[in-house]
Design goal:
Structural class: mainly alpha
Strand content: under 5%
Number of domains: 2
Shape: elongated
Order of helices and strands: HHHHHHHH
Largest sheet: none
Number of strands: 0
């Protein structure tokens, strides 16, 4: 080989190594960003999908889908109405816990609908919620699971109380009120996050 050929081979090898390093850095950064954005939901999706590529594709697809929704904070009047309905539900639980979980689930669905989330099946709702509320989506899953067990008669009052606590955590996080001085387009959920 001539010196020029050696130089070309070395230059190509360096370019390939730089390209691989850049690709690995970009992929790691994307993974870190998704893990930070989705919190525990990132690991849950990774465990469920069994592959980092599949899990990250799923999370990115969720974000893309939810970014198309018009998610809005509640008006002060709606927030007050939902808060009152929640207080009524909790006080009913003290006197008669039967049926409260179904009502709590319905109240959460009503709140989601008012905020602009589509109301599909449970798994779709949980996936959609995970985009803006990753810290509480596990509460939703836990509450829903207990509610399903309660329908089969497999949950005692303590289990129902735990479900209400889970629903309350989700409900509180979803109960965002629009500041009348701030246009909704500047609401944090409306901003695109990378």
């Amino acid at each position: 080989m001539t010196t020029d050929t050696n130089t070309i081979v070395i230059a190509l090898a360096v370019i390939v190594l730089v390209a691989i390093a850049l690709w690995m850095y970009t992929r790691k950064r994307r993974s870190d960003d998704l893990a930070r954005r989705f919190g525990p939901e990132y690991q849950r999706t990774l465990d469920e999908m069994g592959s980092r590529d599949k899990a990250e594709a799923e999370l990115l697809a969720r974000k893309k889908r939810v970014d198309q929704f018009e998610i809005v904070p509640l008006s002060p009047a709606d927030a007050q109405r939902f808060s009152q309905e929640w207080r009524t539900l909790q006080s009913r639980f003290v006197d008669n816990p039967k049926g409260v979980l179904a009502d709590a689930d319905q109240l959460v669905r009503d709140l989601l609908k008012t905020r602009g989330y589509p109301i599909g099946d449970f798994d779709s709702r949980a996936a959609d919620i995970s985009v803006h509320h990753p810290g509480v989506v596990e509460h939703y899953r836990a509450a829903h699971e207990i509610a399903l067990r309660e329908q089969r008669g497999e949950v005692d009052t303590e289990g129902m109380r735990q479900a209400v606590i889970h629903y309350r955590a989700l409900f509180s996080d979803l109960l965002e009120v629009q500041d009348p001085r701030q246009p909704s387009s500047t609401h944090p959920e409306m901003r695109t996050q990378s």
